[in-house]
Design goal:
PPR repeats lie at residues 107-137, 138-168, 170-204, 271-305. The chain has 556 residues and is an all-alpha fold. It contains 30 helices and 3 strands. Strands 2-1-3 form a 3-stranded antiparallel sheet, sandwiched between helices. Helix 16 (257-265) runs antiparallel to helix 17, helix 18 (288-300) runs antiparallel to helix 19 and helix 25 (410-422) packs antiparallel against helix 26 (426-438). The longest helix has 17 residues, at 469-485.
Length: 556
């Protein structure tokens, strides 16, 4: 347009300038518009100067913004606000405050901008002091300070201000707090906030739905996720690529691959993130061949160029499906054919692929030949394989490497203790415990959750706090008795205590996932699947027991 014969007045130029924020290409376009403004003789136009100042401030071009601000013959409140924002984006907080303090007239946007500058730096004491002094608080002022608290996980402070707002809250306020709970991994609270939102008749937006779908994905709350999907359709919310991708991701993470694929096929617009969600999701569910088919469909249609995440999904699918040759092929092609440099996650997938196929020596060779230092995830994949294939010597070597990399991770000590416990080396087990205590290292407790009637119930190992504990306990004993009739014998190698075999079997029976499964069986109807979400990897014994329980109760 700038090069054509179309007339470019200041209104058109200002409109174009406002659209040029966010990407490198748009920054270049904005600079071209600036050049055009100069050539057309509009350099002294106050509205265009303010537009240029706003553009450069949002792009983080402090020198250009400062030059325009200094050259302005008349600087109004809007110009001052844009310059304060420019200082804030570039981390010049003192300069921003000096300019703010020097203003003779301030608007509510002036206060909000300065508060946001402090929040960006993490100076919440100064932000709160300014907020409390603000004589013209509006909903944007409240949202700015609440957003600042949410971004650093200070949810108690954020919720206190949220409550003080009362009826002044808008959908942005609600979305900010819901996103804050997501950021803090308090997924249940995020969903509770949505229920409060409904009770107060506040209309949720597409942003609300994206946050809620993310919460459902982390909790494995399929029922709630399906309800949200229905709500989106019934209230005609716009299914853009962000919301569509969140929906596909939720279904995969809640264990419903069929629904995820159906939701993906129905998306009106797809981008590379949507395709990646499908490839990663199929891989995660062990549908390696389907993941490869989706990859080729994406490639043949010339939809989007595969990126690093695409290959994580592809390699993960090969790993979970035992497609060793295919995995090796795509690992080579990702760099030589597609120009994607392998990162630590790609190496992790390849090590996992080799380990799952029992190729421990090949996995070790790959780790030692890596072009980047292996991390705990890579070594951890090899360690788990060592334990499965009873390679005690290599597992001890790998565990010690893990402890060197991350001495604060309690899981590494547990792995080493497992190795010693499996060989009845109880003195070494006690030494591991002693070192953990001396270093202040704590093991993350296993926690399993299950959704029932749109409510999420959580259990930890040995949990006796649930109102139905007595019934659950009786049912667990009954399940154990029936499993033994099918030939089940507990694998107690993961029990890190020098106790009698019967006591070990009793301890393993009360792992969190077993309690969650028993609760689900007691309280659900029909033969549908029972979905359990756990924060840690399921132990070998519980994995085997779960398969037999599914067979016993004819579950998916």
């Amino acid at each position: 347009m700038l090069q054509g014969a179309i007339r470019t007045d200041r209104t058109v130029l200002l409109s174009l300038l406002r659209s040029c924020v966010g990407f490198v290409e748009d920054k270049r376009s904005g600079e071209a518009i600036h050049s055009r403004i100069f050539k057309l003789g509009f350099s002294s136009d106050r509205f265009l100067q303010t537009g240029l100042l706003d553009f450069y401030s949002k792009c983080g071009c402090l020198a250009a913004a400062q030059q325009i601000f200094d050259e302005m013959s008349a600087r109004d409140v809007v110009a001052h606000n844009a310059m304060i924002a420019a200082f804030g984006v570039c981390g010049c907080v003192d300069d921003a405050r000096n300019l703010f303090d020097g203003m003779t007239v301030r608007s509510s946007a002036s206060w909000n901008t300065m508060i946001s500058v402090y929040c960006r730096r993490g100076d919440f004491e100064a932000a709160r002091e300014l907020f409390d002094r603000n004589p013209v608080k509006d909903v944007v002022s409240w949202n700015a300070i609440i957003d600042g608290y949410c971004k650093v996980g200070k949810m108690e402070m954020a919720y206190e201000l949220f409550n003080r707002m009362g009826s002044a809250r808008n959908s942005v306020t609600w979305n900010t707090v819901i996103s804050g709970y997501l950021h803090c991994r308090e997924f249940g609270r995020a969903i509770s906030m949505f229920r409060m939102m409904q009770e107060e008749n506040v209309k949720p937006t597409e942003i609300t739905m994206v946050s809620l779908l993310s919460a459902c994905a982390h909790l494995g709350a399929l029922g709630m996720g399906r309800w949200i999907h229905a709500y989106i359709k019934n209230h005609n919310l716009k299914m853009d690529v962000v919301l569509g991708n969140a929906l596909v991701d939720m279904y995969f993470k809640c264990g419903s691959a069929d629904m995820a694929i159906d939701a993906f096929r129905r998306l009106p617009v797809k981008n590379v993130y949507c395709w990646n969600s499908v490839i990663v999701g199929l891989g995660m569910h062990g549908y390696g061949e389907q993941a490869i088919e989706a990859f080729h469909e994406m490639e043949k249609g010339n939809f989007f160029k595969p990126d690093g995440i695409t290959f994580v999904g592809l390699l993960s699918g090969c790993s979970h499906s035992g497609l060793v040759d295919e995995g090796k092929k795509y690992f080579q092609e990702m760099h030589h054919v597609y120009g994607v440099e392998p990162k630590i996650e790609h190496y992790g997938c390849m090590v996992d692929l080799l380990c799952r196929s029992g190729l421990l020596k090949e996995a070790l060779d790959l780790i030692e030949a890596m072009l980047i230092p292996p991390n705990c995830v890579v070594w951890g994949s090899l360690l788990r394989a060592c334990r499965i294939y009873r390679d005690t010597e290599l597992s001890e070597q790998v565990t010690k490497r893990l402890l060197e990399l991350d001495p604060a991770d309690g899981g590494n000590y547990v792995f080493l203790s497992n190795i010693y416990a499996a060989s009845s080396s109880w003195i070494d087990v006690e030494n591991c415990r002693r070192i953990m205590i001396e270093r202040g290292v704590q093991k993350i407790p296993g926690c399993s959750s299950i959704e029932l009637n749109n409510m999420v119930h959580e259990f930890v190992a040995g949990d006796t706090s649930h109102p139905q504990f007595e019934e659950i306990n009786v049912f667990l004993v009954e399940i154990d008795r029936e499993l033994r009739k099918l030939g089940y014998r507990p694998d107690v190698d993961s029990v890190l205590h020098d106790i009698e075999e019967e006591e070990k079997e009793e301890a393993i029976k009360y792992h969190s996932e077993r309690i969650a499964i028993a609760f689900g069986l007691m309280n659900s109807t029909g033969k549908g699947p029972i979905r359990i979400v756990k924060n840690l990897r399921v132990c070998y014994d519980c994995h085997e027991a779960s398969k037999l329980i599914a067979k016993l109760f004819q579950l998916k």
